[in-house]
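Protein entry
_____________
===
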Amino acid sequence: MAVLTLAELATITRGELHGDADAVVSMVAPMDKAKAGDVTFLSNPKYAKHLGECQATVVMIKAAQRDLCQGNALVVDDPYVAFAKVAQALDTTPKAAQGIAPSAVVAADVKLGTNVSIGANAVVESGVELGDNVVIGAGCFIGQNAKLGNNTQLWANVSIYHRVELGSDCLVQSNTVIGSDGFGYANDKGEWVKIPQLGSVRIGNRVEIGSCTTIDRGALDDTIIEDNVIIDNQIQIAHNVKIGYGTAMAGGTVVAGSTTIGKYCIIGGATVINGHIEIVDGVTITGMGMVMRSIEEKGMYSSGIPLQSNKEWRKTAARVHRIDDMNKRLKAVERLLNQDAKA
């Protein structure tokens, strides 16, 4: 169990401590459940009313709420960011592997950095390069000539195909597949002819990828994920997609081939993005968005129908089917009105 003094918390968060610097904490907890030995935080002002009852050893808080906190307080610029940093410092999640398991199959010419760990039944093929402190979980597959940068960790059963490159400090959750064939076929008089996917996947530094996500290799050029991108669970990224620096994608999103997504975009869950389009920097797409055309201006975009009762939804669906007829009738009325106005 990790234990930190409040003085150490102040250093980690670059905050200003008010209280006992020698007091210690070992867990992060929500404000309503925190007890002695815990650290909590206030990021939403509507919860400030609970500060008087909070039992945490220290509360991370903005300066504006400092007077509401009766006990130890750590004044920070952004309590939620401070929470993330402290949670990292107190994290006790084990590594996906420790040392190189006897059952791991590692080709003779693999280049291993220092302190590499490879779990049971993992397979690392010829020509692979693994940087310092790389961790490969049990049952992973690393294909020929793939490269993993320093401090990158794969959880169990991740598959990294041939020639795929991951940068430093990446984290990939279980059962994700990177570098599988893109969906490329030609149709010869009704018969599908497979197009070999000759590109690869290049992933930058500090990229995190959730479980059961698939990132396809490029058909000719590479699929590219830039630095500091976060990708949730069960996402499909097709061949030759490019995702810019700092973009975040929530679960269930599907991106069709050859689409470019800019920097600092936020893609809500279950969004569907068409292929061969471009989305500029700074775009937010709310959940279940359907993006059929390029987005050329930053901002927030939404689509889809909000949830209704079944009775209301049936009425809405019936009206949608009549839109074309209603549009024709409206234009006819407008023509009559225009004729009357000219008379």
In short: Residues 95 and 135 are 7 Å apart (CA to CA). The chain has three domains: 4-90, 105-301, 311-342.
